[in-house]
Amino acid sequence: MEGAAEPPFQAELADVWGAPFGAVDEVGALRRVMVRTPGDELKAIREDAWNEELGALVDPDGRWYWTDRRPPDLELVASQHQGLVNALRAEDVEVVVVEPLGPPFVKSVYTRDPSITVPGGAIVGRMGVRMRRGEEPHVTRALAAAGMPILGTITGTGTLEGGSFVKLRPGLAALGTSIRCNGEGFRQLSVLLELVGVELIRVPIAGYSIHIDLHLAMVDVDRALIDPAGLPYDFLVTLRELGIETFEAAAGEEWGLNLLCLRPGRVLMAEGSPRTAELLSKSGVDVVTIPYDEIHKNGGGVHCSTIELVRDPA
Question: 113 near 163, Cβ under 8 Å?
Fold first, then answer.
């Protein structure tokens, strides 16, 4: 009956929880990831909902948008998502595939957003908009079913989405506060991260941009791809002071930033950003590309569609 506070929680993850769940950075070898198959929820998108001013099909009730005049090609969506799964498995990543949520969760293919991966497990967020509110309990159950420890949940009036969280290095992370991630979400996350030894930097995102993962992507231990126009100057200075070398993504290739690092110096990126891919390749970063343009029309990319379960420290 002797007390057993030591060794600490994270040191016993593999023995008690079955795997070294979580991630201390964004670039170590990716071992296990969770994705959600797209399904019938996309049938809600209607061709008669075109909004000329916004340049998209837009639900009058605010449940979805689609950035094309034509509704989704469901076969192409399924094929491109399967291509993501196949590409990950080809890189020796174990892929946990969870079932579609169905209506009304039109954006639920983007598994990154309802939670974040931190050292030792996951923190479940609180979605910032009504069209996605309600995904949180589903992702909590899916993560738990995959064995992932749930270390906390954003409550009260806090809003927090995973696409605006990035681990810069062990012990240091950043949250892009925006229309989707508010100050209260930042405050609560700071407290939760302090418990696992991680300091959190607040990065105000410009204008109506929603997530930091359209402006910053770690591609190696000390290298990042950036869209400098979408990041505050003070944060760019901070990156330089941290010794993080930055490369500017090519103009007009915003989906090139929404990449997933597979291991140090190797990334998975959607096709359609050839100048950015060439820039990375010339800088010594291996780039694997897949077609993903149909899924982009729903508002997210490769990074948005994956959530880390296990990643080795770089």
Answer: yes
Pick the CATH number of 16-311 from 3.10.20.70, 2.30.30.700, 3.75.10.10, 1.20.1250.20: 3.75.10.10
Cis omega (within 30 of 0) for bond into 7 = yes
Do you find a cis peptide bond into 291, omega within 30 degrees of 0?
A: no
**How many residues make up the chain in this entry?**
314
pLDDT for res 1: 82
pLDDT of the residue at 2: 86
Chain-centroid distance of CA 97 in Å reads: 16
The Cα–Cα gap between 206 and 231 comes to 7
Q: Which two tokens stand for residue 37?
A: 């198959």
Q: How far is CA 171 from CA 22, 26, 88, 119, 265, in A?
A: 13, 12, 27, 9, 21
* Per-residue DSSP letter, 42: G
Q: How many helices (H) and strands (E) does the chain have?
A: 6, 18
Overall pTM surpassing 0.90 (yes/no): yes
Write the DSSP assignment of 241-297 as a string of letters: HTT-EEEEPPTT-GGGGS-EEEETTEEEEESS-HHHHHHHHHTT-EEEEE--HHHHT
Question: What span, in angstroms and rounded, lies between the C-alpha atoms of 210 and 160?
Answer: 11
Chunk the chain into consecutive blocks of 10 residues (it has 314) and report each block's average pLDDT, rounded to whole numbers.
Answer: 90 96 98 97 97 96 96 98 98 98 97 98 97 97 98 98 98 97 98 98 94 98 97 97 98 96 98 98 98 98 98 98
User: How distant, in Å, are the alpha carbons of 31, 33, 138, 156, 249 from that of 19?
Assistant: 10, 13, 22, 31, 35
Give the model's pLDDT for residue 206: 87
The answer to whether 198 and 244 are in contact (CB under 8 A) is no
Alpha carbons within 13 angstroms on the beta-carbon side of residue 254 total: 14
Distance CA 206, CA 219 (A): 23
Which of 220, 223, 293, 219 lies closest to 254 in space, CA to CA?
Answer: 293
